[in-house]
Write a structure and sequence with these properties.
alpha+beta, 96 residues
């Protein structure tokens, strides 16, 4: 058993990626945390670093649910994000 440095949950060693340079031979983050971190970085590169964390979380859920793999899938997510931003700005203008 090993505790993930990011989520602080003890997990079996099969949940960690092997890493020769590490003292115990395993990466400090579990595979699930590594996957989420990769997705966050990738989405921030895709949409720009000014994207809100709440949007990143919802996009990651979409990423997993839709199993995004192709450039067309990414393009569709960009369109959905643009539509969501536009509708959010319309709602905020109505409230003013």
């Amino acid at each position: 058993m090993k505790t993930c440095s990011k989520c602080k949950v003890p997990k079996p060693l099969s949940e960690f990626t092997k890493r020769k340079s590490s003292k115990d031979g395993y990466y400090c983050y579990c595979k699930a945390c590594c996957k989420k971190a990769y997705q966050e970085v990738h989405l921030k590169k895709l949409y720009g670093s000014d994207i809100e964390d709440s949007w990143v979380d919802s996009l990651i859920l979409d990423w997993d649910r839709l199993k995004i793999r192709t450039a067309e899938d990414i393009h569709l997510m960009k369109l959905r994000m643009a539509n969501a931003r536009a509708s959010r700005s319309l709602v905020s203008k109505k409230g003013e």
